[in-house]
């Protein structure tokens, strides 16, 4: 299992539009092969910051999503609200 962590900063004042966009394209992500779970969180102290947490069965599953048409739908729904490109990293569990 691989955890994708994306720090997403949106343009000030576009928080509600970002959330609406996320809800409208969430299925493009959740219908992807290898996706185990997804969670979007909204910053309390930093209201323009969101954190996306996605569990993938493997890094290859995440890359397959990025290479698919679903990624264009996903990015089209949320990307216009980005203040800058998201910072994305992948993590694995420590046993």
From TrEMBL:
InterPro entries: ABM_dom, Dimeric_a/b-barrel. Pfam families: ABM. The keyword Oxidoreductase applies. Residues 2-91 form the ABM domain. GO terms for molecular function: monooxygenase activity. Keywords: Monooxygenase, Oxidoreductase. This is Antibiotic biosynthesis monooxygenase. It comes from Jatrophihabitans telluris.
């Amino acid at each position: 299992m691989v955890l994708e962590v994306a720090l997403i900063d949106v343009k000030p004042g576009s928080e509600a539009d970002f959330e609406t966009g996320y809800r409208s394209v969430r299925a493009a992500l959740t219908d992807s092969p290898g996706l185990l779970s997804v969670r979007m969180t909204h910053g309390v102290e930093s209201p323009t910051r969101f954190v996306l947490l996605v569990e993938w069965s493997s890094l290859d599953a995440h890359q397959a999503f990025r290479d698919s048409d679903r990624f264009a739908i996903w990015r089209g729904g949320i990307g216009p609200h980005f203040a800058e490109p998201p910072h994305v990293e992948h993590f694995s569990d420590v046993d």
